[in-house]
Amino acid sequence: MGFRGRIRALVVEHAGTGLPGPELERRLIELGFVEGAAVELLHQGLFGGDPIAVRVAHATIALRRREAMAILVSAEVPA
Amino acid sequence: MSSAAPTIALVGNPNCGKTALFNALTGSRQKVANYPGVTVEKKVGHFTTPAGRTLQIVDLPGTYSLRARSPDEEITRDAVLGRLTGEVTPDLIVCVADASNLRLALRLALELKRVGRPVMLSLNMMDIARKRGIEIDAARLARDLGVPVVSSVAVRRGGTDDLLREIDNAVTNLPAAGTSSWKAPDAGELRGGQREADRLLDAAVRRGGERDVGTARADALLLHPVAGLIILLAILFVMFQAVFAWARPAMDAIAAGFTWLGALVGSAPLPDLLKSFLKDGLIAGVGSVIVFLPQIVILFFFILVLEDLGYMARAAFLMDRIMGGAGLHGRAFIPLLSSFACAIPGIMSTRVIDDRRDRLTTILVAPLMTCSARIPVYTLIIGAFIPDQDVWGFVGLQGLVMFGLYATGIAGALGVSFVLKRLIWRHSAGEPFMLELPDYKIPQAKSLAIGLWTRATIFLKRAGTTILSMMILIWVLASFPQPPEGATEPAISYSLAAMIGSAIQPITEPLGFNWQINVALIPGMAAREVAVGALGTIYAIDGGEGAAEKIGQIVAGQWSLGTALALLAWYVFAPQCASTLAVIRRETGSWKWMWVTFFYMLALAYVAALATYQIARALGAG
Ligand SMILES: Nc1nc2c(ncn2[C@@H]2O[C@H](COP(=O)(O)OP(=O)(O)O)[C@@H](O)[C@H]2O)c(=O)[nH]1
Ligand SMILES: [Mg+2]
């Protein structure tokens, strides 16, 4: 918990979700997940730590780990 | 058909305050929206600007893009693009944004500009943004964005003055309908849009991205993996206890009022038959339903408060995995919770679920959630058969049984969806669950009042129409034909009602139902709560003066515990509300799913009542 980082890329090709890759990508972007945005893991659910709630820039978004796997994040280097 | 008044569309992300703005602008001049709660339909109203212009305004479901992923978002897209049959594009689009959470809204604003209609940005919730020290250079934003930008506070008097002034400016010289250059953006365009929005944000906003401290503190507890779930359960438990305990005084007062009215009619110099019609048919019947208004208002109070607080999205988050085990989507939690009030708004709010099968599953199980129309029946039977005592010193036994009935409905819903999704459809990699968790807001008294008022009037209208006409029908069935000269049995034994009730008897015998119950079940098809009124009428005619007031005592004397429990079990599952079935037909667009719902529920009800009665009888309570 409290993991912070920046989004490096969205990799949707092999995401094991019910959505086709391009559609998943569009939905993630609409919720603010674009390259360069700061993210922080805020909460996780009881069972298997799923779903998770992340802070992405100005908003808090809940999503399942399966979809979150498509978001490639590089850990924040402490300044 | 284009109406004379120019039309303004309110478009924005979920929870940015569109409905609050709509209410503030139109006040009481809106067509009463059918159901309060999340906006899943467009709502039309009128208002007059300071310059004296009358405008039409539409409130729309929240969205992040016009790309429409779910049925409610399609409504927004079609309304904005003028794709609904017989409608034109709005003359002005007011993009509403939560000033304390601008990032996604700005991308939407950029997308809306492509629709080809004048756009204006309203920075709503300015009070919250200011309190949090967020500084927005509105002039700069307007210049960069290329559209007028105003601030608004939907929930404060005078909070829409700037917005109204700017609307007046905008509608004085509306351009002729232009061509829309909007087309569904691909990932690249969306990405570009968000980049540009981020640039605008950097240039015009200071201290915009910090988390709201209060929300962060609350969520540390409310979204805690263990504590959060316990709190959610506790909230639900308190809600159901409150429905029982808080409503008591008001219910007693209403009941006393109807008793007084009945006595008044009883002593009036009227022909006996007319007197019986007024007293046993109308007053006893309608009165026994209206008594439950306080409980329904309390239930809706909780649901509206949780909704306005911003807690519902959290509940969906907490429940996603648990419901997922039964094949339900986390988003189904909100529709299912509203179904506790009434399945109709619940089924309508399934429009927020994008995947068709996820949505269908939710629609099919929504009627199993204990709706408020079951409360009268539950209350009557529990009051008559379950002793009013405390267990463990603080929990009422009656409330506990009520809780058990709710739990049974929930278990039934989970079971049915499990069978559907996991065994029949074998739906595995489902739709994603992605949901913004808005900052907590203090619920506004005014919007609560509007919501409760709407709900109460819907209930009273039902009492005055569907329920009233059913009551009249019941009275007629129970009163005719009149007993022959020198009849020895109570008058009702000779009536049509008795004949019908006895005709069904062979089917319901194994459930422990008597013919009076059978008669009450039939009008219960139109509206569940009528069953109570019907029993009131049947036993009033059967038992003479003042019986309707004592209907609880009467059934306690006439039914066995097994019968009572079987009836409760029946009511948990039975498909007894024509309007719900009609909504299922409308929302699924097919008769098939309506009949599927009807028959599976009927089967469950029969089996549950049968098992309950037979077990009770075996244990000596038959
Ligand atoms: N403090 C404050 N609260 C607001 C304002 N506008 C809306 N709200 C609250 O924000 C919540 C969501 O508003 P609602 O109108 O339902 O949002 P919608 O989803 O866009 O229709 C409600 O609790 C409103 O009372 C505002 O300008 N200031
Ligand atoms: Mg709304």
Structure, explained:
The complex is a heterodimer of chains A (79) and B (622). Chain A is built from 2 helices and 5 strands; from the N terminus they run βαβββαβ. By secondary structure, chain A is of the alpha+beta class. Chain A has one domain (4-75): Ferrous iron transport protein A (FeoA) (SH3 type barrels). Chain A has a 5-stranded antiparallel sheet with strand order 4-3-2-1-5. In chain A, strand 3 (52-56) and strand 4 form a beta hairpin. The longest helix of chain A is centred in the N-terminal third of the chain and has 10 residues, at 21-30. Chain B has helices spanning 18-26, 71-81, 103-113, 126-131, 138-145, 161-172, 187-204, 213-222, 227-245, 248-266, 272-290, 293-309, 311-325, 333-338, 343-348, 356-365, 375-385, 397-424, 445-479, 496-508, 515-521, 530-543, 551-558, 561-573, 578-588, 591-618; strands spanning 7-12, 43-48, 54-59, 92-98, 119-124, 135-136, 149-151, 205-206, 390-391, 395-396, 434-436. In chain B, strands 2-3-1-4-5-7 form a 6-stranded mixed sheet, sandwiched between helices. Chain B is elongated, with a radius of gyration of 27 Å. In chain B, strand 2 (43-48) and strand 3 (54-59) form a beta hairpin. The longest helix of chain B is centred in the C-terminal third of the chain and has 35 residues, at 445-479. Chain B is of the alpha/beta class and 622 residues long. Chain B starts with 6 loop residues before the first strand and ends with a helix. Chain B is 59% helix and 7% strand. Chain B has 3 domains: 7-210, 3-Layer(aba) Sandwich (Rossmann fold), CATH 3.40.50.300; 232-370 and 398-425, no CATH class; 469-618, no CATH class. Chain B contains 26 helices and 11 strands. Chains A and B meet through helix 1, strand 2 and strand 4 of A and helix 3, helix 7, helix 13 and strand 11 of B. Strand 4 (59-63) of chain A pairs antiparallel with strand 11 (434-436) of chain B, so a sheet runs across the interface. The site of magnesium ion (MG) has 3 residues of chain B, from helix 1.
